[in-house]
Amino acid sequence: MIRRVLLHGLGRGLLTRRPGTRRGGFSLDWDGKVSEIKKKIKSILPGTPRDLLPDTSHLPPEHSDVVIVGGGVLGLSVAYWLKKLENRQGGMRVLVVERDHTYSQASTGLSVGGICQQFSLPENIQLSLFSASFLRNINEYLAVTNAPPLDLQFNPSGYLLLASEKDAAAMESNVKVQKQEGAKVCLMSPDQLRNKFPWINTEGVALASYGMENEGWFDPWCLLHGLRQKLASMGVFFCQGEVTRFVTSSQCMLTTNDEMVTLKSIHEVHVKMDHSLEYQPVECAIVINAAGAWSAQIAALAGIGKGPPGTLQGTKLPVEPRKRYVYVWHCPQGPGLETPLVADTSGAYFRREGLGSNYLGGRSPTEEEEPDPANLEVDHDFFQEKVWPHLALRVPAFETLKVQTAWAGYYDYNTFDQNGVVGPHPLVVNMYFATGFSGHGLQQAPGVGRAVAEMILEGSFQTIDLSPFLFNRFYLGEKTQENNIM
Amino acid sequence: MWDLVLGDRRINSLRLVAPMWNGTRGIHRLGGAVVPEGNQKKERTMLQFLTDHFYDVEALRGYLLQREMSKVHLKNRSFTWLEEQHGPYSAGAFFILKQGGAVKFRDKEWIRPDKYGHFSPEFWNFREVPVEAVDASDCEINYEGLDNLLLLKELQSLSLQRCPHVDDWCLSRLYPLADSLQELSLAGCPRVSERGLACLYHLQNLRRLDISDLPAVSNPGLTQILVEEMLPNCQVVGVNWAEGLKLGPEEQPQDPASPVPA
Hints:
The complex is a heterodimer of chains A (486) and B (262). By secondary structure, chain A is of the alpha/beta class. Chain A has 13 helices and 18 strands. Chain A has helices at residues 2-17, 26-44, 49-52, 73-85, 122-136, 138-141, 165-181, 190-196, 220-234, 295-301, 380-394, 441-458, 472-476; strands at 63-69, 94-98, 114-115, 159-163, 185-188, 207-211, 216-217, 237-240, 242-254, 260-272, 279-289, 319-330, 341-343, 348-353, 358-363, 402-414, 421-424, 431-435. Chain A is globular, with a radius of gyration of 29 Å. Chain B has helices at residues 2-6, 23-28, 37-42, 46-53, 55-75, 82-86, 88-99, 146-149, 168-171, 194-197, 220-230; strands at residues 102-105, 110-111, 131-135, 157-159, 183-185, 208-210, 235-237. In chain B, strands 2-1-3-4-5-6-7 form a 7-stranded mixed β-sheet, with helices on one face. In chain B, helix 4 crosses helix 5 (55-75). The longest helix of chain B is centred in the first third of the chain and has 21 residues, at 55-75. Classes of the chains: A alpha/beta (486), B alpha/beta (262). Chains A and B meet through helix 9 of A and helix 4, helix 5, helix 9, helix 10 and helix 11 of B. Chain A: Associates with components of the mitochondrial respiratory chain complex I. Chain A: It is found in: Mitochondrion inner membrane.
């Protein structure tokens, strides 16, 4: 009997709940009622912990051992090596502060992505060689469990540098230095060049140097993504914000020559959030300036350069943003799959892009032609007048080409000697620089990151000696000139 | 536990690659840096789920991956010190045979290790006899191991089929063999892409090149055409890019049954 009652009751329940046949639809109302009941319960019961305290998940932590200003490839590389070389796992808290999480103006993403060892300074060659081996073994260095391996899209096609009569002797001595350091570069005469690459017009070329191994170009976004992923797994903190203030404390000391020197030390960094006045003071022990094209502003915040000119206090960081254009064009009769990155005697360069007869390239303007770095607008006339004639002269197939697109990016240009600034500042004792690479920062990032990490953890450069790149040279006037800048 | 991960897609030579993410999907994903989230969620294995939730499992998998990598490094250690005592050809041959490949000296028979990995020591006497052909299929040669392979200066035929660690960087190292190398096979190498194939331009004496079945090449037909243009004297075997092309109206094949127009 109970069963019959149950069935009967259930049956009626089912009948009453059947939608469609009855007007009103009891089922719809039921869902609405449930959510209303939930809301009522929530308002009656005490709130969740999230409601009691304000949400601060977008703010950086209040204390951090190292604050890295700038989240481009150099900043991330320093963070990676700091975490990798620290003696204890989790021994150091590293915070990377990046103003723009879309990296819309960062030099890393807008870069052409080349890596080559054809420099005149041995330190630069060693940095590039190490970076090549880092990129080759990137899946061992940046391995994250459960993540797919990185594919850098590396093109090992090499660099081909052309030299006119007056530069030929310098090129020969450079190649000698490069070979001594272990780079695989060979010299070619114009005849050999014509044999190897029949699409080149060797008029005006006296000598060429061709990199056979460890040279080419790759995808910088992939490197950036891989570094970010690995750093997140290593426990590095990321913050999107802008550094607006350094709070420093000073100490007056006497040198051995009885001169007074004021040594400053940064103990707090104010990080301001986007589109708001909110800021977070981060107590820190070490600050790394990897802000690329804007490094001079960060240095000025720390008081570097505020003093009478000609003194160490008055020596500014000579890094400024310089705008460079990159143009992409299509040329169906252009050079084939084997094309290296060709750098002409005039400074114009180009390389292949993909399988579809697309090429990209550009040229560094002379000092008088320097465009205004206030924005990243592209000047197409520059291509017509200053780049195309040189390309068409060197590669006759480029007389008919069609520009598809173009973009502009910044070089963090070191106006003193076009080489990077690495290492601590003599007066602001806990600010380390990793900037000013004037167009070859991407290819030297792994090596420089390791050097800065060694400087911080061990006190001196251990593997590659980057003493010629210290800040002191700006005050002492000793230029570490690099001749092969593109 | 590995059965859960590999399922029915166990490929021995790719064991380093397969357990760490979804089987063969992983190989095909080498072309892109980021896997779309939707695809990943569907095929997540229990091991991946555990890795996301337990530090121990993550650490264990990291340790096992490091161990696999150090095994490969050990296999590719340098044998160049054997060169003074036995000559470059024997040193290089020893490296190949240790890896499991086969070697052919000039005017001699192929020397192949048996299924236990043992091979006859007669090649130690061939001090002056150059190695003509190397069959390193399915061997775990990587960039460092090529140091040993490049000792064989007069190599004419090289087969690197299905080598899991041969990638574009390795291809850029082959140019010292340009004078002698006539035959090269890269069929089935999962890491070789069209960017590495561009380095084969230096091998001007190459007469036969096999680039079939390269999963990392984005456009096999176009790549085949570009490689054929790059190496005009070489017969390139790979994709038949002509099939599937539509013929123009004047080239329509005549149907034998229809009447021949007068």
